[in-house]
Amino acid sequence: MSQDAPKTPWWNDQGNRAILYQVLVVGAVVLVGWYLISNTLANLAARNIATGFGFLGREAGFAIGESPIAFDPADSYAKAILVGLLNTLIVAVLGVALSTVIGTIVGIARLSGNWLVARLATLYVETLRNIPVLLQLLFWYALITEGLPAARQAFNPLPGVFLSNRGLKLPTPDWGGTEWAVLAALLLSVLGAMLLARWARRRQAETGQSFPSGWAGLGLILSLPLLVWLLGGAPVAMQVPELKGFNFEGGTTVSPEFAALLTGLTLYTASFIAEIVRSGILAVSPGQTEAALALGLRRGQVLRLVVLPQALRVIIPPLTSQYLNLTKNSSLAVAIGYPDLVSVSNTTINQTGQAIEGVALLMAVYLAVSLGISVFMNWYDKKTALVGR
Amino acid sequence: MTIQDPKTASEIASHVEEPSQAELKAPRRSALMALGWARENLFSSAPNTLLTVLAVALLVWAVPPLLDWVLLKATFLGADPQACRDAGGACWSFIEVKHRFILFGLYPHDEHWRPLLAMGLFLSAIAISCDPRFWNLRILAVWGAALPLCGLLMWGGLFGLSFVGNDKWGGLPLTLILATLGIVLAFPLSVLLALGRRSDMPAIRAICVGYIETVRGVPLVSVLFMASIMFPLFLPEGMTIDKLLRAQLGIMLFTAAYLAEAVRGGLQALPKGQYEAADALGLSYWQKMGLIILPQALRLVIPPIVNQFISCFKDTSLVIIIGLYDLLTTAKTALSDPLWRPFYIESYVFAAFIYFLFCFFMSRYSQYLEKRLNAGLKR
Question: Chain A: nearest CA to B92, how far in angstroms?
Fold first, then answer.
């Protein structure tokens, strides 16, 4: 540097300017925020609306149509919102699982060499993804509540199963506690099968010896619950829904709202997942398949060991955003009256008048759920990502 | 199930060095050819044959009743509800009776030519925007002329047109307005947000990331709730804000976050040399962005913007929840007439068909664009 280089004046220094700009922008944001908040506070004071989250502890005073945990109108608003959240999560989890299965099948079907199957899958995808999901929900809801017969003329496709405009009625096992033991055994055996598969994979990687972990796992999953059932005295009693008056009693109910919501969300999201799966499989170069076939792998093995692991890397990021979309779209339940988080929050807002707290709580919960899904899917993505040396 | 090779003959041919006439002439169709085609595409193996049989069974099960309902047993013009119910098929006279309401909502019946004309203008403006020759400042002139004209037609109050308040607007024009203005107004905001997210200044980046991720993490329903319940509280005493405007603002704020991510994709896709070259020329930040970076980046993100428009178009149906009369709401409200209540399928199919037409053609356009924009990259 020569000594007489012109000195940059401080107001032209890039670092100083950056600080100035940031102070200005943050100042503007704070100013606008302060203006809005002061207006809001003035409005709330003028309308005599209380602030704060104190209302959460008060008695809710409204009933909720369906709830996984016992809920009584005398319970608090906080519990009502929890019930709403649980209902949202149930729809989201089932919807994600079902739409992944349907979407994968349709996506593979679109690539099928069978002309007819490919055309049908294309028809499915193009139709469903170009119609708003809310319209589809309203359509399914109308179809169930108006199109299905009344409880007295319910369809009876299987003994004990009734389909009417009151929803789907299913018989439940009435085994005096044994059903829970069987369920626990089932979960335990699934876990065992997963551990077995992991052990078999590791052993094969180390020693080259293969182990039929698929068959062994299947045997475990089938035999353990059966064994528990037999030990429990092999009960067969079922609680069958019975027609009493205008509705059924006993058994489990899948309500029309839940059925419509789950059907609509699943079929809509599956059409997007199908496209993602298709593009993921197309992204794996045909050379990979050819090389795997040349190594002597069977068709099924090629798909499972070579194509899918590579396709998954392309599939998972967009799949994550579809899962997030499905979860967020479950908020449309409010339009057909399923008591999800939005619907319960809406009732709460209407009763307490505390719109700001209600909407803030709603957004915070959705943000937390979205974040949870993102974190899980990112972890899974990392796990399946290409490991470089 | 076998997986089709993605490379078609013409794609392979395009990799051949010299321009060759490698495309074979399509062979003449004959009964024998059809048989060969069927054998290759439907009955190539035992599982394939089984699939074909299953698909045919599905078609045999589904198509005849559907055809019966749509055409053979359907009633068309002039039938009353009783005649419809007796026939047992679709009641298309429902559409005949209710189409004005479904398409235009509560807009005064004698003035329906106005929203129709406004819609025509809107669609022409959209069609012009699809032409790459208008992807410059000329597009501003098109919209600058179209929007005031549409506003004049819809509101009236001048030149002898009677005034129609926007609480009376409804149906397809409302859906089009909400979706198009949602994108058009969100666009400048989304460019600023995307630039902010890529900025070196930590405070600005934090604000932009916070906004984008918050909005993308919550459902549109909650944003619309916020718009309809909370916006009135934000304003000083005595100032009110119209219901339609609130919904429009909510949709705009929501769309801006998604668009910003699309624009950021374009900014990231540009090679670094473009940024460095602009810096080397001594351009200021806004000169660099306005003259070098954005003109290239925005071209790249036109297909994602069209896709965003499609989902915005579908999402406008959510305004049913805050009580605006968009296309879906009118289709649902048309059913509240006790005479026509049983014909919900016809009503929803009609609305679904309109949504489908728009979304299908826009998605085709987006695919065409992607091919066109990638044409320079493919050899």
Answer: 17
Nearest CA in chain B to A300: B1
CA of A117, closest CA in chain B: separation in Å? 6
The 8-class DSSP code of residue B2 comes to -
pLDDT of residue A261: 92
Domain boundaries in chain B?
Answer: 93-106+167-374
Lowest-confidence region among A11-15, A171-175, A278-282, B18-22: B18-22
Alpha-carbon separation of residue B69 from A145, A353, B345 (angstroms): 20, 48, 11
Burial of B337 (0-12, 13-18, 19+ CB in 10 A): middle
- Greater model confidence, B236 or A28: A28
ipTM of the complex in this document: 0.81
pLDDT at residue A120 is higher than 50 = yes
With beta carbons under 8 A apart, name residues in chain A contacting B235: 39, 43
Distance from CA of A116 to the nearest CA of B (A): 7
CB-CB under 8 Å, B42 with A114: yes
Write the DSSP string, A221-242: HHHHHHHHHHHTT----EE--E
Confidence tier at A101 by pLDDT (50, 70, 90): very high
**Interchain contact, B233 vs A22, CB within 8 Å:** no
Tokens 């002039």 belong to: B78
Q: Which of A26, A332, A371 is opposite residue B203, by nearest beta carbon?
A: A26
Domain B93-106+167-374 has CATH 3.40.1670.10: no
pLDDT in tens, A31-58: 988 988 888 888 777 777 777 777 777 7
